[in-house]
Write a structure and sequence with these properties.
By secondary structure, the chain is an alpha+beta fold. The chain has 10 helices and 18 strands. Strand 4 and strand 5 form a beta hairpin.
Length: 424
Amino acid sequence: MSPAFGAMEVEHYSKGVLLEPFVHQVGGHSCVLRFNDTTICKPLIQREHQFYETLPTEMRKFTPQYEGVVSVSFEEDEDGNLCLIAYPLNGDHDNLENLDNSDCETKSKLLRWTNKKAVLLENEKISKEWIWQHRKEEKMKSHKLEEEFEWLKKSEVLYYTVEKKGNVSSQFKHHNPWSMKCHQQQLQRMKENAKHRNQYKFILLENLTSRYEVPCVLDLKMGTRQHGDDASEEKKANQIRKCQQSTSAVIGVRVCGMQVYQAGTGQLMFMNKYHGRKLSVQGFKEALYQFFHNGKYLRRELFESVIKKLTELKSVLEKQESYRFYSSSLLIIYDGKERQEVAVDSDPEDLEDLSEESSDESAGAYAYKPTASTVDVRMIDFAHTTCKYYGEDSVVHEGQDTGYVFGLQNLIDIIKEIRDESSE
């Protein structure tokens, strides 16, 4: 939860940035945190850090942009509220000076870096009465959210009705059960280790959802093998079992998480990795269909762009000598914001370039004019990636990562099937 800061607390945290849960995290077990609107951070794992620093040029468009390293501390305010604060590494602001932190300030978070120096926001005038009232409201809200989260995290697939007031994207906060689960686990781990260690390195990465008003996110675990070369026998056996019992062994890809906005009902649909593991190949195909369907019609205009990007990625990976992306994920992201509908009997100028009518039978005499839809395809999570160029690895692989490429090709084929079947 995010604590409310009083005047003394603002001074105490005035050299850091309060980190919050990244509410669009739909998979993975590592905690992803929001640094600002365009940047996220996650615990630094040496192998993943090495990957980003030695990334082949041709792969950079298919991975998040790497933006540096920060030091993160677990801290408590005077009321015992837990929080994570990011500080420049070793007091050096150089790797952060170009980051825009202007969005980091709220009435409970009054700090930012400006010209390499931490300053209080001049436009914030907070009375002691406001501070204590805000604390009371935050505690009541937090208690309610804790109860709701306990219910949410028990569900593998759930629908959450978005409130009609306010911007749709603002309603995501606090209601993605997977991100809240990861955030709570990270706080607990750091709390347990606080006596022995309270300085952790986190890497800063591009927030891939920042350009979308209502991000729809699909997290796919790629490859026929998930365990790294350094895995223990127990871990290896566990990962092999998960692959054999899911679509990973059959088609080299499985659903690890999903977040979709349903325009028809005004709901958010979440699917977690436990449900994804249970899917058959047909179930996997149906889940993909569901990801591209907004509850009113299938987003057909997205297919060609997704297929093109996946095909390009496949071509790039086929040329990567020695890389193995064990346990890596692939994200597909698009904007769930509903497109503007135009009446069929409107002025002819309004109907230029109309695509085919919505598949929603209730659309009646309406057709839609697609907005400029953009789809992003990115690889993430490289904690178990290996390559002969790393030098210290005991196992050296040759050629392409055939398991990952196999999964990509099957993913492309299934999306093509959905596209072709929906146009019949």
